[in-house]
């Protein structure tokens, strides 16, 4: 077990991928990097620590359990990626999380996110193969690129205040139905690679530029190539309906549009 105590940040020394955590090496009386990584199975970050810097505990291949304090406010890039953690509770005191924090955590199956979080950053859970469900806090307005890609999520509920969804955010997941809130303004290839989708529900209008950038046409092409259907629900009489029906009439007869208002 590695215990981090005191105040301020848990930092790394130096820079670059070869940097290592002095507290880990000191804790197990070793200067061998591989031995240090393999020895840590549990991390306890005690009260008083306010932030975890980037790479803080990444690549600890046997790290299974993590306890975080209520004094923590931020977590840096890739802080826990490629570890063996199975569950994580991020305290409500955390308001800032950087990219790829849990990327490649293949055993991670249970996550509690802080209620004050406003952004799910890029690649936050990418490659978390055991993750089958997650609740996104209501205050989240931005979901980053590849945020949930290559997970085992079967469904995902997006908060009503989300305005931006990044590239391939649910790529290579089992999700078959996704509902996009009316608040969403930008979906930069967000649906690309989500080839298990059979139903897409758009609760609001999108501009022609926005609908063309969703990645929806790629899904329609995939549906045609694999002789499967794809249903798009959206407001009647608007840009979404016109664009979808135009695609259907020209190239994708197995797809269909249904008005949801």
Describe the structure in your own words:
With 261 residues, the chain is an alpha/beta fold. The protein has a four-stranded parallel beta sheet, with no helix packed on it. Helix 5 links the parallel strand 16 and strand 17. The longest helix is centred in the C-terminal third of the chain and has 12 residues. The protein is elongated, with a radius of gyration of 21 Å. About 6% of the residues have low confidence.
Strand order, biggest sheet? 2-4-6-8
- Structure annotation, total helices: 5
Q: Termini separation (Å)?
A: 55 Å
Rg over CA atoms: 21 Å
Gross morphology: elongated
* Poorly predicted segments: 13-20, 24-31
Oligomer: single chain
Mean pLDDT: 89
Q: How would you spell out the order of helices and strands?
A: EEHHEEEEEEEEEEEEEHHEHE
Overall number of strands: 17
Backbone structural class: alpha/beta
Compact summary:
With 261 residues, the chain is of the alpha/beta class.
Spell out the key features of this protein.
261 residues, alpha/beta, four-stranded parallel beta sheet, 5 helices
Describe the secondary structure blueprint for this structure:
Blueprint: E1 2-4, E2 8-10, H1 22-27, H2 33-39, E3 42-45, E4 49-52, E5 65-67, E6 74-75, E7 87-89, E8 96-97, E9 110-112, E10 119-120, E11 142-143, E12 164-165, E13 177-180, E14 186-187, E15 199-202, H3 208-212, H4 216-225, E16 230-234, H5 239-250, E17 255-259
């Amino acid at each position: 077990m590695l215990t981090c105590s005191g105040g301020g940040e848990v930092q790394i020394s130096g820079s670059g991928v070869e940097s290592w955590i002095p507290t880990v090496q000191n804790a197990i009386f070793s200067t061998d990097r591989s031995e240090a990584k393999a020895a840590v199975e549990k991390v306890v970050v005690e009260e008083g620590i306010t932030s975890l810097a980037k790479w803080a505990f990444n690549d600890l291949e046997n790290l299974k359990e993590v306890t975080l304090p209520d004094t923590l406010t931020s977590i840096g890039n890739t802080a826990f990626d490629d570890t063996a953690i199975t569950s994580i509770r991020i305290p409500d005191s955390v308001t800032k999380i950087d990219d790829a924090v849990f990327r490649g955590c293949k055993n991670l199956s249970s996550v509690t996110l802080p209620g004050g979080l406003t952004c799910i950053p890029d690649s936050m859970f990418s490659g978390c193969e055991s993750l089958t469900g997650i609740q996104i806090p209501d205050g989240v307005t931005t979901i980053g690129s590849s945020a949930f890609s290559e997970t085992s999520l079967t469904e995902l509920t997006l908060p009503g205040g989300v305005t931006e969804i990044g590239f391939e955010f649910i790529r290579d997941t089992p999700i078959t139905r996704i509902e996009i809130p009316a608040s969403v303004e930008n979906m930069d290839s967000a649906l690309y690679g989500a080839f298990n989708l059979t139903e897409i529900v758009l609760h609001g209008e999108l501009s022609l530029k926005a609908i063309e950038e969703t990645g929806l046409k790629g899904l329609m092409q995939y549906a045609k190539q694999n002789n499967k259907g794809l249903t798009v629900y959206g407001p009647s009489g608007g840009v979404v309906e016109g664009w979808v029906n135009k695609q259907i009439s020209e190239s994708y007869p197995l797809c269909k549009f249904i008005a949801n208002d």
